[in-house]
Each structure stands twice: as C-alpha cells, then as structure tokens.
Amino acid sequence: MYFRPLPALSIACALLFAFLIGLGVWQLQRLHWKLDLIAAVNRNMAAAPITLDQALAMGPALRRSMAAMLEAASVPSDGLGGALRQNGLLAIHYAVSRVYDRDDTADLSKTMAALDSRLKMAERWAQFFDKYTKSLKSPEPAPSENSPAP
Asked: What average pLDDT score do residues 18-24 get?
C-alpha cells in the first residue's frame, strides 16, 4: 500500500494555503495601520488644547459631519427637523466624549453605557416630535362610497 496524493486535493490545499497566507499578510497590514492610528490619537491627546477661535471655526465642519452621519443612517438632515437632529447628535457626541475621556475600563463599558443611554433618550424625543408633528397635520378626508378607489 503506497501513498498516492490526489491531484485535485493537492491543488485545493495549495490554493487554501496561499489564501490563508494572504489573510495573514492582510491582518499584519491592518495591525500596522491601527497602531499608527493609535499613535496619532496619543499624540493628539498630548498636544496643547485648541483655542476658542479654533473651536468655533470647527463648528460648520462638525455640523456637516453630523449631517453626513444622519444621512448615512437614512435619517433626513435637511430643514428645521434636520437641524434639530444635527444639534441633538452633536450633544450626544459631546456628552459621550466626556465619558470616554474618563473611561479607564478595558472594554469601554462606561462609554458604551453612556452612548446607549443617550441614544435611547434621543429615540424617545424623536418619537415625541414625530407624534406631535403628525397630530398638527390636518386629517385627510375619508373617501366616499361613490368615489373610485385610488
């Protein structure tokens, strides 16, 4: 009894091995990318704080960023309602950022709890405003028996 490798199985194993090597290289590239991001965050945390003028100059960019986040979540960000949503999202961002700065847990559980709490509160407010704005709209007349169905 001699060992005879099957050609199809050998080719499949070689392709799988090459694929797994590629995944390993990709993971190492991601590791270096993420380490660079962490180093940049640490550099920024150690930098001098920005002035009030610089903070105010960032306002329009922050609003555009919040609008982009809302649009990415398929939530309208235009008009008065959109402006309210943008400001609400900015308030959530600010509040959760303050918790994040003091969060010393490895899994950021305090930050996640604060984010969850603020998002639930925002959802309740959104439901309230939706209910309020719908009650302000005049009801459409009911179709009569003689009118054709739309």
From this structure: 97
User: At a CB cut-off of 8 Å and minimum separation 6, what does 66 contact?
Assistant: 77, 85, 86, 89, 90, 93
Separation of alpha carbons 67 and 112, rounded Å:
22
Cβ(117)–Cβ(92) below 8 Å: no
pTM, full prediction: 0.54
Extended strands (E) in the chain: none
* Contacts of residue 63, Cβ cutoff 8 Å, sequence gap at least 6: 86, 90
Q: Which residue, among 128, 129, 117, 131, has the nearest Cα to 83 in the 3D structure? A: 129
pLDDT tens figures, 94-113: 899 999 988 889 999 999 99
Pick from 64, 84, 14: which is nearest to 5 by CA?
14
Give the pLDDT confidence of 35-64 residue by residue, as tens digits: 999 999 889 888 888 888 888 888 888 888
Max Cα distance, the chain (Å):
90
- For the chain, the structural domain boundaries read 12-44, 52-135
pLDDT at 49: 84
35 vs 124: CA distance, rounded Å: 38
